[in-house]
Write a structure and sequence with these properties.
Layout (H helix, E strand, L loop, with lengths): L2 H4 L22 E5 L5 E8 L3 E7 L2 E8 L4 E9 L3 E2 L3 H7 L12 E11 L5 E9 L2 E16 L6 E12 L15 E13 L4 H6 L2
Antiparallel strand pairs: 1-4, 1-11, 2-3, 2-11, 3-6, 4-5, 5-7, 7-8, 8-9, 9-10, 10-11
């Protein structure tokens, strides 16, 4: 894994955004996803018996947020090899061509395309999710937005909870269909720390 990815990382996942609005440093506060507190997760049935849980342990990205003006944008990048289902042999199998095909597609990407705020603490987020080189729109229900000064280091932090779903066949992840179900539930929990002086490269990601 490249050194500049090791210290972080979704969502990403995946959180809240409106990529249709160009973000300038004067429009919104910019935050960097806090890797130790950012874990895109999923649930899928194993046959008709157990419920398999998984999460990705390395996610990198940024978000820009101005709730007063209803503006936001998110960019996230997930390292697929950081997948953890609690059973290493299964994690190894999921790297194969019939599933994530990690040799060809080592990352998952999320880029927001629209947002609708429902009060100060909820939102509906639309975005494009890219897996295995295939991009498909997804919708996330952001059930919690909380921004405040951290009591630990006095930096401004925003935390998010979100949920959604997808069909894995949208992305060509068709291993063992239909024995294993197509439907996947998404659970996203993250926080992000304010960046006081985001550079041009970060702002371009958030357009």
């Amino acid at each position: 894994m490249p050194r500049h990815h090791v210290k972080f990382w979704i969502p990403a996942a995946f959180l809240i955004g409106a990529g249709i609005i160009g973000i300038r440093s004067t429009d919104a506060a910019v935050y960097q996803l806090n890797a130790p507190h950012t874990f895109p997760q999923f649930e899928i049935r194993h046959l008709v018996f157990s419920l398999i849980h998984g999460q990705f342990n390395h996610t990198w990205g940024y978000l820009a947020l101005n709730r007063a003006k209803g503006r936001a944008s998110v960019y996230a990048k997930i390292w697929v090899r950081s997948l953890d289902t609690g059973y290493p042999p299964r994690d190894h199998d999921l790297m194969a061509k019939a599933f994530f095909d990690v040799a060809r597609y080592p990352y998952i990407y999320f880029h927001s395309t629209g947002v609708h705020f429902e009060g100060r603490h909820r939102a509906i987020l639309k975005g494009n999710l890219t897996m295995r080189g295939v991009t498909h729109p997804v919708v996330l229900d952001v059930t919690r937005i909380h921004c405040a000064m951290s009591p630990l280091d006095q930096k401004r932090v925003c935390g998010f909870d979100a949920k959604g779903s997808l069909e894995r066949s949208w992305f060509g992840i068709d291993g063992f269909l239909p024995v294993l179900p197509d439907h996947v539930r998404l659970i996203l929990n993250a926080d992000a720390v304010i960046v006081k002086h985001p550079g041009p490269a970060v702002l371009r990601l958030l357009r």
